[in-house]
Structure formats: structure tokens, C-alpha cells
Design brief:
9 helices; 2 domains; 184 residues; mainly alpha; 80% helix
């Protein structure tokens, strides 16, 4: 005989597997209709499943921001790959790879919010840096600017020093201890 607890666990597992099968079927159907390869649809769906598993783990293990970061990265990447394989985003992966830096920055914001329930400089500064870096690299990847990345680096390399200093100043301001904490 199965206990009530075992039946509840079996029902949750059945629900989760059923939901995954339905989503895989919908994704495959959309792939078949649009004429894309089933391998690319399956791969993007697999990335989304990995993200969903990490999201469940993150919710189960309360306040584990690392799992929220991984879940958000995988979910964003999976949905992007899925929309890209359906040609909703008509860009090749060789052009749109800087989006992964943007996804990492957005995922870091989510992880920081989950951990502290507010925006802390410890998470916001690197996440904004990742988003800005991704946006800058996207400009070069899509040929928005009339010069190459190499020309940009050769002319504007001191800007890296300015930005690195700014990041260090912002992080140090965010990590200052309160006067009553210094005496403990």
C-alpha cells in the first residue's frame, strides 16, 4: 500500500512530466509548422527544462540566489533559442551572442532581488555592467556603428579604466559598514 505522502509525490511528478510532454509537443508542433529542424526545437526546449528544474530547486531551497541566477539564465537563453529557431528573431547565433551577456546581467538582478528583497550594489553594479557590455557588443555585432571593435578598443581603451574605477567606487560605497556595526 502506498501512503498518502507517496501518492501526493507521485501526483506532483505525474503533473510535472505531463506538463513537460505537453510543452514539448507544442514546441515540436510549432517547429513542424514553421519548417525548422526538430533538433533545434528540442535543444532550446531542453535548455528551458533545465532552467525550470533550477527554478524549482531555487524555490525549494529558500534564499539560494545562485539557483535563481542559473534558472533565469537558462530560461532566458532557452526562450531566445526557441524564438530564434522559429525565425521570430531572424538573427544568427554568431550575430546575437552578446545577448547572453545581457541575459546574465538580468539574471543577476533577479538573483540579487531574491536574496535581499531590494536592489543592492553588490548585485546591481555587475549586472548593469553585464547588460551594458552586452549592448555595446551587440552594436558591433549588428554593425550599428561605422567602425570595428578593434578600432574602438584602440581609441577608447582608457574608458575601460574609468569604468573599472567607477565600478570599484560604487561597490565600495555599497559595502560600507554602519557605525554601530564597526564596534561589534
Amino acid at each position: 500500500m502506498h501512503t498518502r505522502f507517496e501518492r501526493k509525490i507521485a501526483a506532483k511528478i505525474s503533473f510535472f512530466i505531463g506538463l513537460l510532454l505537453m510543452l514539448l509537443g507544442i514546441a515540436s508542433l510549432l517547429g513542424t509548422i514553421s519548417g525548422t529542424s526538430r533538433a533545434s526545437i528540442f535543444f532550446s526546449f531542453l535548455v528551458v527544462i533545465i532552467g525550470a528544474v533550477f527554478a524549482v530547486i531555487a524555490v525549494t531551497l529558500n534564499k539560494k540566489s545562485l539557483y535563481f541566477f542559473i534558472a533565469a539564465c537558462f530560461l532566458q537563453t532557452g526562450f531566445f533559442l526557441f524564438l530564434s529557431s522559429l525565425n521570430i528573431f531572424p538573427f544568427s547565433l554568431s550575430q546575437s551572442w552578446p545577448l547572453f551577456s545581457v541575459f546574465a546581467g538580468l539574471s543577476l538582478i533577479i538573483a540579487g532581488w531574491r536574496r535581499y528583497a531590494s536592489f543592492k550594489p553588490r548585485y546591481m553594479v555587475p549586472s548593469i555592467a553585464f547588460v551594458i557590455l552586452g549592448c555595446v557588443l551587440l552594436m558591433f555585432s549588428f554593425d550599428v556603428v561605422p567602425f570595428s571593435f578593434v578600432q574602438f578598443v584602440l581609441n577608447w581603451w582608457p574608458l575601460v579604466l574609468v569604468l573599472a574605477g567607477l565600478i570599484l567606487v560604487l561597490v565600495s560605497l555599497g559595502n560600507k559598514t554602519k557605525p554601530e556595526d564597526a564596534h561589534k
